[in-house]
Each structure stands twice: as structure tokens, then as C-alpha cells.
Design brief:
single chain, 231 residues, mainly alpha, two-stranded antiparallel ribbon, 12 helices
Amino acid sequence: MIQSWTLKGDEIRALPLDELALRVLASAQQSWNWRTWLLEARQEHYPREPEVVQILSEAWGWLQAKCLIAWTFDQSANEAFTITRRGHEFLRQGTRWLRAVERLDIDLVAELEFTARPQFLRGDHETAAFTAMKEVEVQVRRRAGFSDSLVGTKLIQEAFRPPKTPGGDAGPLWRGELDPGESVAQMDLFKGAIGLFKNPSSHRRVDFTDATEAVEVVLLADLLLRLLKKI
């Protein structure tokens, strides 16, 4: 049965496919057969608009491709489906959440693969972002050979410290082979990331209500760790 279906044909044509698929899945929570759902849509709602029904069929295909529905093993009909765990999360959090999850669907450095990623997928966005930036701090300290007492932006400043005079003493992570302006910019990049995204979470709760923002922090940490491996 199609539950609370009110979209007109022109609205269906205009909706992005992921938003349409969310509407379709929400309306099909009491259904068990996607083909029966489409037949009802054609007969009851769009009898003179076959192209609209075809668009709805595309939405079902999209749901399957994104693993938001799966086939039901205890039903003999090939069209029988069930909503997956990710599908239920999609219903709860919407398209922005799924787009954020897909942004994170890349190979992360090993230090983040089994920490920040699962934390984000469990919905703990703050911990995922904090863990990712904390790992940057840990790796900077380890590579620079500093003690645990040196933390935050002060750690970054000392690790990437430029020489006061040409050829003078510099921080252990200063890249003398680069143009001095680029080396300073690299220090500022690390310092800004730690100061903005790691330090606040160390002292207070930071509410990442926007999943996309949390993902971008994780991806920034991934980039910083990759840059660090080159030093």
C-alpha cells in the first residue's frame, strides 16, 4: 500500500532522484513488494502519466543500488523487499546524511579507517571529527619526537618552526627543500586545523549537527596525515 502519497506528476519530474527515493521509501514502509507498489501508483495515481511511473521505478532502482532496500529471503516473489539498516537510517536522517556518508566512501589512511569512519557511521559525528584531528596531533608529536606534554597549536608551532635566520635551527618537521613561504603555509594549515577543529572539542562539547561538516573535518585530517607522511 502507498501511504500518504500526495506528489503530483510535475513534482515527481522536478525532484532530485535521492529526494524522490526518500519519499518513495517513506511511503512504502508497509509494503513488501516494489512491483505491486508501482502498479498501484500507475492505476490509482498516474493512470495517464506512464513516464511518471517510470521515474518512480528509477527511484526504486536507486534505493536498491544504494543498499537501502534488500530482497526478502523468505518471500518467493522476486520483487519482495525489506528496508535495510541503512535504509532506516536514511528515513530517520534524510538525504543530507546519506550524501555525507557517501562523501566518506573513500580509502582513508589506516589511522582513521578503523576509528573515525565507524564512529561517524554510528552517528557520533563529534567523536569522529575529534578522533580524526587528535590523530593528526598524535602523529605530528610522534614524528617530531616531542613529549606528550606538548599539545595543540603550540605543538604544531614547535614542530614546523621556521629558522630565524637562513640555515639556522628549525623545527623537526620544517621542510627546508620547499619555498619558505610554502613551508610556513603548511605550518599554518596544520595549526589552523588543530586550533579550529581539535582544540575546542578538547575543552567543550562541539555539536556537529551537520553531518557533512563532520565528514569534511575527517577528510581534512586524512589530507593532513597524508601530507605528514611525505615529511
